[in-house]
Amino acid sequence: MEFHLPSVPMRKILSYLDAFSLLQIAQVNKRWNTFASTDVLWRKFCLKRWFFYEVVTLELLGTESWKQFFVCRTRQERAKSRAKPEDFTYKEIPVEIGAPRNAYYISGCGLTRDGQGKSVICVVTSMNTISTWDLHKGAVTWVSPVQPSYIKILATLPEMHIAVTVDIESTIKLWDCHNREALATNNMLSSCQSLKAVFTKDGPVVLAGDTSGNLLIFRIPDLHLISRVHVFQYGINELYCSPQKKWVFLSKKHSQILPKVFFMSSLLRTSEFSAPASTILSFPLCQRAFWTPRREDRITLMSIKGSKKITTFVTFDIKLEKEEIGNKIRVKEYAIANFSLKKFEDTLEWMGVSDKNVIVCSTGSSLLIYSITGLHLQTFPYGPGEILRLSVDPLHVIVTFIDGSLELFAWEERSPLLRRCYRLYNKRHMLHRRFVNKTLCDDVSIVRVMTNVPSSSFLMVYTLNNGS
């Protein structure tokens, strides 16, 4: 005799399972498959793994169900780390890039509705336009009109296929990368230094830091100014949002100015807060900052000080607390770990953090892995001056070398260590005047932005064959 649990307790029991267990449960019979495939369960896994917000819909993600998205994206993430060099297609796309740093993905994780790969990148060109490029086809898909003033900064919001630009006249424009004309335009009083377009639980917004030390927040899609907050005496060099956009980290590289963290909701809901809620991090001369992936309240900072070039790392937990009097909230920082490293032969340049409380950093000749308390875990040595740049995300670490090649590492699932995956070599000889200015990565492609003075610049692209 077959026994059936009622729907409510059945869903409750399944809510305690992990994704792998749910996939196994779904194979028992049709009824169990129906329960184990509900959007409520799989949406929870997606929120936990990728920190999506309520406003992020299945339509925006280009998928029919949360389960489909979770399975497809997880499979693609693993495919890239398990791939071999011969699994990639290499191509060079000639693009007249105006500013090498102004290149960003505009296609999300690179997955389409059918689970296949499609990577699209947005760049500012030397013709003072912005354009989008399908990396798999190697073709341009959209070009804006030529702009009257030099485009200084670009940001993208891949979930909405939107780009944001600021020119030297401090004019900010919003583009949907389909229409010829901008969706919206506004003006900043001071020159822009940092720019981010993000999804928050209150909707999509643009954050801009200017040279006067102000943080401005504009609403998408009309670029209505939501708030303007004076943060520093001087300009805002760095602007980083936490994984779920609860916090905004701001810094100015100045010996007398300490970095600050703001509570995002207090910047967006100005009628509910008498003043923006923030805290100051006691860490002068901050060189780098990195929010811990998949942990909303933890950030690690790096500084290099003194003639001996001592490198210091400090990890803070940021908390929101209620004051006993007046029922107001305040932001409080807690330094939970720190350590210092003596001078290396090469100065530490880049750093990143995994969700397992592990810091990865690089000198010109080695890749170093430490716990946030300073325990040395791994070293990957290379030749002197070989490492050019380090790129870190929740799944991978990409080391870019001076000869144009790159090496991909993956974070082990059940340990704090890195696993070396493969090296992708440059397909042609690198001349001394050619430089790798930026390395970008999504689930189905890796891109290097190359400049070749005085000749043209180009995109050096690797795309996964099984994602094309």
TrEMBL record:
Pathway field: Protein modification; protein ubiquitination
Keywords: Ubl conjugation pathway
Record has Metal-binding as a keyword: no
Species for this entry: Rattus norvegicus (Rat)
Protein name per the record: F-box and WD repeat domain containing 12
Range of residues in the leader sequence: none
Organism superkingdom: Eukaryota
Residues of the F-box domain: 1-45
Record's keyword annotation contains Disulfide bond: no
Coiled coil (residue ranges): none
SUPFAM superfamilies reported for this sequence: F-box domain (SSF81383), WD40 repeat-like (SSF50978)
PANTHER family (UniProt xref): EXPRESSED SEQUENCE C85627-RELATED (PTHR46550:SF2), F-BOX ONLY PROTEIN 3 (PTHR46550)
Pfam families per the UniProt record, alphabetical: F-box-like
